[in-house]
Amino acid sequence: MRMVTEAEVRHIAHLARLRLEDAQAAQLSTQLSTILDYFQQLQSVDTSAVPATTHPLPRTNALRDDLPSHSLPQDAVLRNAPMQEAGCFTLPKVLDGGGA
Amino acid sequence: MNAMPFDSLTAMCAAVAQRSVSASELCGAALARIASRDSQLHAFVDVWADSATRRAAEIDVRLARGESPGPLAGVPICVKDNICTRVGHTTCASRMLADYRSPYDAHVIDMLESAGANVIGKTNLDEFAMGSSSENSALGPTQNPWNTQCVSGGSSSGSAAAVAARLTLAALGSDTGGSIRQPAALCGVTGIKPTYGRVSRYGLVAFGSSLDQIGVFAVSAADAALVLRSISGHDPRDSTSADRPTSDLVIENGTSIKGLRVGVPAAFFGDGLNAEVARAVIAACDALCKMGAVRVDVSLPHSQYCLPTYYIISSAEASSNLARFDGVHYGRRTPAPRDYIDVYAASRAEGFGDEVKRRIMLGTYVLSSGYYDAFYDKASRVRTLIADDYAAAFKACDVILGPTSPMPAFRLGEKSHDPLSMYLADVYTLGANLAGVPAISVPCGFTADGLPIGMQLTGNHFCESVLLRAAAAYQRETDWHTRKPP
User: Fold this and answer.
1) What is the pLDDT of residues B58-106, one digit of tens each?
2) Whole-angstrom Cα distance, residue B52 to residue B48?
3) B345 and A99: CB-CB below 8 Å?
4) Number of Cβ atoms within 10 Å of the Cβ of B410
5) In this predicted model, what pLDDT tens digit does every residue of B437-451 receive, in sequence order?
6) Cβ–Cβ < 8 Å for B229, B244
7) How many residue pairs from chains A and B have C-beta atoms closer than 8 A?
8) Nearest C-alpha of chain B: how many angstroms from A1?
9) N or C: which end of chain B has fewer CB within 10 A?
10) Active site residues of B
């Protein structure tokens, strides 16, 4: 049996905000199942007394003095925006059945 | 064909300092070399002919005034296109960022400029640095200079191929699971992934934040050291950046490796290793021993788990990092969303390629409710065991020696249909990223078919100088690194 069903693929795709075509969902179900089945070998390692590593070097918070400094100018930040208006990022109207 | 007028950065920098060559001449030579070779190789995704020519002229003015523009004055260099630059585009070889222009320069760009280097363009990669062959580049793959039917490795494919073909003598890449070392091995150049935190990642487009590190490609270890020293050091803009001195990142002529303990783990020479690669790497180990190094057996008992551990952790981090590409602030936006969720979902579906989608899906799955403990938490614990293996090994040895890649360059298309077989190309390089330790790939031979072979030397945290000295000593006694593709 496949580890990841097509229904699960669709659920994960929704969580990840990825629109999938039907053929892609079927293909991903096969591929993710194969990959995750291979990954199951980790279950054979006893980690009951082993802490997790989230960071490869022992480092805690990196703090700096709370001083004002320069940030990018507004026009530089907005230069790559798909749409902008009055110094803000804007989105297409999508409520009320409206398109772009 | 236009030849690169120097064989090493060291010689190039000395010639600039003596004013026997100008920055403009070096820039012109690199641009001519790119023009003659790169239409075939596709190492570059963007060549900055105008800005590089202007920059070279500025450097020459400073040199004429008697100023010293820095240790890399006038040196043409290229950087992987996941490093943000104000000049040109920063695409990550993705449709998502096809039109993206960064409003700021990465820290390494600032550092290269203050060292006097001349960045002449951006190099090809697997989309968002995810892949081992550059076949995931939305802009098409890079071809291997030694055999254009073969891949150049990945994900820093263009940087490796550019140095192999001597389009430039140095390049920057990034390495999350082997993305500097594997293409360096497959292209026959020297490539170093420094310790996690050694080089600031400010301005590197994030893939796996607990794994990513910027590093250097060059013709030799001595040249790599020159560039690495220029880009290393603390940067408050990267909270993972280490405050460590960089003064030891130099190679003195004639440094001895007498007594250097070279650890050889059996795990790196098991099933799946190409026989020609194994022979060349063992011969390299013997050569180091003839030079005074001492071989010791070490064990990395959890290395068989590196691959699942790495792909779970890196995909989880990628799924989180790539959430920023939402079609709102920058990057691709779908022209006709069905609803507000679709602004995100369709923009991402249109912008990302198949492998990036697969990793996002894998990462979201292993972080999702019900699977977090079995996959992400499990992998994070096994990661501790893998890091402990390295720590234990470095009590018995100074460097760990093995192959960089289990096979030489494979054919374009050979593995692109099978994600898992492509992942296996990274099997020897992943451990260094999981443990955060530095590692270097050094050319150590060729297959009967004329494809380069690389050996990997791995060191303890912040022991880049040990790796560079060992590699430089090896390169004084061998000439594999000086061989150039046809």
Assistant:
1) 999 999 999 999 999 999 999 999 999 999 999 999 999 999 999 999 9
2) 6
3) no
4) 22
5) 999 999 999 999 999
6) no
7) 170
8) 17
9) N
10) 80, 155, 179
